Amino acid sequence: MSDHTPDTPNSLPDVSQQDAVDQSRRKLTGAALGVSAILTLASRPVLAQQCMTASAAVSGNLSQHGTPTTCSGLSPGFWKQQPDKWPLSYTPGTCTGGGSVCNLAENWRNGTLFHPTFALVTNGSGNSFLADLDGNPTTPKTSLSMMQVMLMNDGNNPWGLTDPDNLGMHIVAALLNANKGYTPVLTELDVMNMWSEWASKGYFEPTANVHWNSAQIVTYIKSTFGS
User: Fold this and answer.
1) Is residue 61 within 8 Å of residue 40, measured between CB atoms?
2) In DSSP terms, which residues pair with 209 in a beta bridge?
3) Is the pTM of this model over 0.85?
């Protein structure tokens, strides 16, 4: 009878081979982090105002030592319906009518322009928010205002402009929230850089080798909203 136990390996794996396997696993894990972390954020209870920086969110670990950071960001819906609450640094503009017509982007004039506050889109994933506002095809197109971007209703506007995953709408809300100090984990510069990187590359990289698309960026921004 043999003393050899089948479940016991006869030799240790080659060290270099094992290192290669570990490196491969680490790359796959890093690539998946962006998605898993976003799903974790999306599943949080509505009343939970705990928030974190984009780089910290990649780990998906919501536990924190000491007093957790909380955010009280307001949604795009709030900023659209409460133009009088906008911070002084940014202006919503003026609605040319009243009542329900103020829910349409084309009925707003002036206000802080989306560009150059935010960079032009060059990655081919979506249109920049430039439109022929004066109806004169011989003059250069003008940027929509930040309020118009929030109201443009993806593709359902006179200019046929699109807003992938409503990123423009949410990035404006994030900027206003940051200015008001509602989101300690996001400064105005953070918000602008988040958009700028997506506009030029088609993704935002919260940490090395993790790429967030427009939908994932929106999910993260929503995680900074309060109850």
Assistant:
1) no
2) none
3) no
